[in-house]
Amino acid sequence: MARDLQQLQKQYNTSAADARGMFGGGRGPAARASGTPKNTARTVARMLSYLKPYRGRLILTVVCMLMTTVTALFASYMLAPIIDRLSMYLHPEKELDISAIETFLIDRINGLIGPEAPVATFITTAALILAGIYLLEIFFAYMQSRLMVSVSQNVIESIRNDLFEKMARLPVRFFDSRPTGEIMSRFSNDVDNINVMISNSLTSIISGTVTLIGTLVFMITTSWILTLITVVFIPIFTWGGMMIAGLSRKYYKSQQAALGAVNGYIEEMVTGQKVVKVFNHEDECVEEFGVLNDDLRGKQFYASFWGGVMGPIMGNTSQISFAVTVGIGGVLMIAGAITAGGLSVFARYSRQFSMPINQISQQMTALFSALAGAERVFEVMDTAPETDPVPEGGQPAHGPAAGEISGYVIMKDVSFGYVPEKTVLKHIDLYAKPGQKIAFVGSTGAGKTTITNLLNRFYDIEEGSITVDGTEIREIPRDVLRRNIAMVLQDTHLFTGTVMENIRYGRLDATDEEVIQAAKTASAHSFIMRLSDGYQTMLEGDGGNLSQGQRQLLNIARAAISKAPILVLDEATSSVDTRTERHIDHGLARLMADRTTFVIAHRLSTVRNANAIMVLEQGQIIERGTHDDLLAMKGRYYELYTGLRELD
Q: Rounded CA gap, 102 and 80, in Å?
């Protein structure tokens, strides 16, 4: 039976944060970015620092924006002298009370064509001037758009580069403590919101403000009485817009929550299709999805309704303002307080007066949404990166800090916890000489993988010391340390590229012959040669066209090509069948011959030849010795090896 709606939403809204990175909507990162920034002034100042290199283009953009607005307003005003000049021709006996600007325009046109020119010539000339003004408006609008797109794309490129560069230097702890979708949303939703703000919202707000002020100035110039009447409707516009926006925002948020639940459910069902089919839960999945989808439909209806009703309501409100203004204007025209041309122009301004108000109010939401997104991006940029101590007197010429590592590892009284309240490792002591093989066995959560994480300095220890060739690892630059440690992890990861490129990832300067030899060492050469294009076969989707065992063999080959003196095998053969494991045993033996090797394994048969086996339980080493020594002790290892106790 399907779970109820509340339970489904609670469960899948949490996991939906990851889905937004793929589906592009939802309630997690996107919703947080749609709120308001915590520190607007600081975020704006940070954004301005990215805009500063392009201030010349920004100035030109503002100039083009002003010219676009001025030409648009002036083009509308040009209708007045055309209409009034025609009225003078039709009713020469009637004296018109026209404005100073209109008189100036008529005199300038008469100066071009002569005061005695026919009215048709006047109108034709005025129409040509009007067409020229519209062409100028188009030109300035084009330049404004071109310049702003150039600025926005350059800024976004800089932000993405800075964000990616910072992420590449963040500690593993940062990625372990955040869902992948949450991190991805910084590059997608948040950066896209910034792009919209720079390229659209910012220009719309400035343009709307300039248009509003310019329209108001031309309206006052044309008729201050009608301007007062139009201004009376501003509170109505504002109140109506805020009320509808509030309702729309309320239902939009609930829609995003429902969309997040649907996306989260889809993500989980798609990734778990094999499990769904094995247990025949297709009908239950369809039923549960129907519940979530029906809830989304209802909320989308109200969100779309209130979002769509904004335009008609505000438009009709402006029509009421227009009707009242024109009605009173007609009375004023009969009374001689305004000319027909003046009323025509004012009516045009009155119709478009509400547009910049709506434009600004609508863009403010997008503006704050983008600033909130920018704040999330800058939050990542401000995260402390991995740092290394600066050696006194410059970089050492010899020793581990210079990259000359033989692989003598000592851990002394090491204690560590991922969170302060829970200690994972307790007083660990061990050593490994160059060429030795040290194995870790124990139940899940005993701390085996944590030891290798500390060795790589993915995390720094809290107590004790870890030395490599007698040097504390915190005194060895991270890049040097990790360049001297090769890892084969339980979870394989292959990059988009050829098989040869994936193996060469272990050492980028390796030759093709070295790549092939590494594949032979890992017993991967034979299956590679059976692929469609051999070593040039393209891998996509994390090697989805390979079996899990084949992917792991490439992972082992990647470690084999590295010249690192220290090797870590974390369940390296867990995805390889017994037959394949036998094939690579010889290769691994050669691979480990001159390297200090740390092995984590559930298959105890793979650690029998280790120089020392460490049995861990609850973060402590409870037994240590060779395979034969531990069997003779008849302790925990003996129980695990003989099957009296199972690894959990």
A: 7
